[in-house]
Amino acid sequence: MSASEVQTFTPREFHRQAHDALGNPQIRANFRKAMDGLMAKRRDVFSDWDLETLRELGANIRLRALAKLPDLLERLEANCQANGIQVHWAENGDEACRIIRGICERHGAKAVIKGKSMVSEEMHLNAHLEAAGIEALESDLGEYLVQLNEQTPSHIIMPAIHLNTDEISDIMHTRTGTERTRDVDTMTAAARAQLRERFMAADVGVSGVNFAVAETGTLCLVENEGNGRMTTAVPPVHIAVTGIEKVVEHLSDVPPLYALLTRSATGQHVTTYLNMISSPRKPGEHDGPNEVHLVLVDSGRSSIYQDDELLDTLRCIRCGACMNHCPVYTRVGGHTYGTTYPGPIGSILMPHMMGLEATKDLPTASSLCGACGEVCPVKIPIPDLLVRLRRESVGEGRGNVPGAGVKRSKKEVAVWKGFQWLATHPRGWRSSTAIAGKLQALMPSKLGPWTEYRTAPKPAKVSLHALVKRHQAGKFDEDGEERS
């Protein structure tokens, strides 16, 4: 997509946007090629590991941290402050933006350079700063490209995965004057040259956080390009922004999670850089910021924390593996979801942040094949949570998600309750399918909202089970014809 073709996406229009994406062969080709490669790399890099044991360890580390979350956040604050890091608390994204803008204004900042941070995307930090007259430039190459193209990331790890080489070349030529080329190294070098002087001129650097260690007050940042290290070390002020769930208890918890994150996300044994930030520049040190700030953002996470089932959502380490393996995401892409976090993880996380009424189509954007749950490195039961949200979106279940409670008609409820009973009682199921086969001509072609996106089923005259039994009883000849 060129800069002149920028679109706006919303979760309320998921079905229309999905239809448009499925009709775009370029989007499907871009994602298919990228996802196939990522799945193969993940499979290969775990080939000589006891993956299930490592996943169990990762899940237990995250569960232990969540079980102690309030205490760990207080320990993190205390140890960060002892190290010289200033800690700020934000109830929501707007408050976090005001805190960051206030820090920038106190330093007279006119230019901010940003490392990759999905929380900053979640709170629309760039737009907030620009409205205050502060330039915010993305330094991650993928984020830089989508910013040039006036888009949002389509993947939490690879923001520009929806673009192919020709599209990237066109964007860079149109926006920066770079000569058109299909050579990836040439385009990468051009982008780095454009960004390097901006690192040196920036007044403030903003980054995300992968793991915040309560034990030591250390902020861990995982990256491949070096922009994260430049962002956190070159400008005189560094602001790290993260969700409150990213805290872990011990420094020794980081290596297992790091091993799971890098392998699940990009199929790498390790990333090029693992930055561990524990303080501002100390006397005698030659580089590093004069100030380090940590902004801890809630934005609905405390509400999730109160629900003993949906709490599992907070285990996420943002690897993107669930997206890479999801048959829906890989065909329609991230922008189709219209949310900061797309794919399976977004479908269980965004209803808390935006309300279920605004995102009610997202839990249904799944085939429930279970691939997302099977590959999740910290064993989040994503399919179970999708089913839970589906129930709540139609007014059933616990109703703890904001905006839940859209009611179905009594007739529709009765029909699905009847189906549920039949599907769990074999004798009733066999009897009903036998009767339905005989009355198949009377089957209606429309079954309410259920057939808006599906073809109404037509029961077979004879079920597969019945045919198998007849075959086993010798009622068919060698050509498969039923004996008279």
UniProtKB/TrEMBL annotation:
It comes from Billgrantia zhangzhouensis. Keywords: 4Fe-4S, Electron transport, Iron, Iron-sulfur, Metal-binding, Repeat, Transport. The lineage of its organism: Bacteria, Pseudomonadati, Pseudomonadota, Gammaproteobacteria, Oceanospirillales. This is Iron-sulfur cluster-binding protein. Residues 307-336 form the 4Fe-4S ferredoxin-type domain. It comes from the Bacteria. NCBIfam families: LutB/LldF family L-lactate oxidation iron-sulfur protein (TIGR00273).
